Amino acid sequence: MDTVFNSSLLLHGLVVIGGFTVLFYLFKFSWKCWCGFRAYVLSEYWQTDLRTYGQWAVVTGATSGIGRAYANELARRGLDIVLVSRSEEKLHAVAMEIERSYGRQTRVIQTDFTVGHAIYPAIAEKLDDLDIGILVNNVGMNYAGMLVYFMDIANPEQRITEVINCNILSVTQMTRLVLPRMVERGKGLIINISSEAASEPQPMLSLYSATKIFVTYFSRCLNSEYSPRGVTVQCVAPFVVSTNMTYNVAVSAFVKSAPDFAREALNTVGHSSFTSGCLSHALQVRTYANMHSSLGGSQWDSVFSLRN
Ligand SMILES: NC(=O)c1ccc[n+]([C@@H]2O[C@H](COP(=O)([O-])OP(=O)(O)OC[C@H]3O[C@@H](n4cnc5c(N)ncnc54)[C@H](OP(=O)(O)O)[C@@H]3O)[C@@H](O)[C@H]2O)c1
Which first-to-last residue range defines the signal peptide (predicted)? Predict the structure, then answer.
């Protein structure tokens, strides 16, 4: 009698635990779907007014690709733009394009981010009198035109320093320049362009993917530190966007054009602090993550010879 009673109690207990587990996963799944729907679909109609952050937006690496597209899109949405890049000629061309198309003010800062810490006092001086609401830390570079072993990087002594200066130091130093005033005013937006290449270790892209995971972690930590004080730090991690960096690969369902990417990514502001930037890339990330977990992390790693 006792045994029958105990087993039915156990059965009921298991049913209750199972029910709660199913409910928990259903809720989690629905929540994720809602967040994705809000960030990538609803955001098309439900956009944050970016002018509320301040009058000026600063964009690094602003003369081509994703940076140029962000600069144009921010101007279209009513901000004045500071363009920061290496080539004076390209800077003036993009500044002209923005002034003509959107009637916004522009300012250009010619600098080379590979140089290192010495460039920042001059940048600080040029930004000093501006009400900067948004910073887009976009500039970034790879260290070779193709996949290479770390030891095969050409001129490694110089190249390693250049990549770290451009991809990591620029993000931290530019943030240091604008963040104090944003915190003082209690509002601001910093957008850091990381990469999907940071989601997993990427052999043959070792230095690049390592610099990008730095950007991701730095952004997410800063967002936790400063969002309670009114400053949002958004990390954008794209898959493939057709730019010079990707040899202007053809645009497709998987590959975004830079203008489309920037427009969709800016729509996600206020909806997500860590985003792929657009629906197509978010779906690719999900598929990639599912493949990763169904293959098993360690098997996946060994496909790429990460572990012996
Ligand atoms: N394209 C993609 O598929 C993809 C995917 C994931 C992440 N990303 C990231 O997105 C960001 C932009 O990439 P992109 O594809 O748009 O690259 P891109 O087309 O090569 O453009 C790079 C921009 O940065 C400037 N720049 C390059 N080196 C510089 C330096 N040392 N100092 C100052 N400015 C410099 C370039 O202008 P000048 O030549 O005039 O200096 C250009 O305006 C990068 O951080 C990249 O890692 C790109």
Answer: none
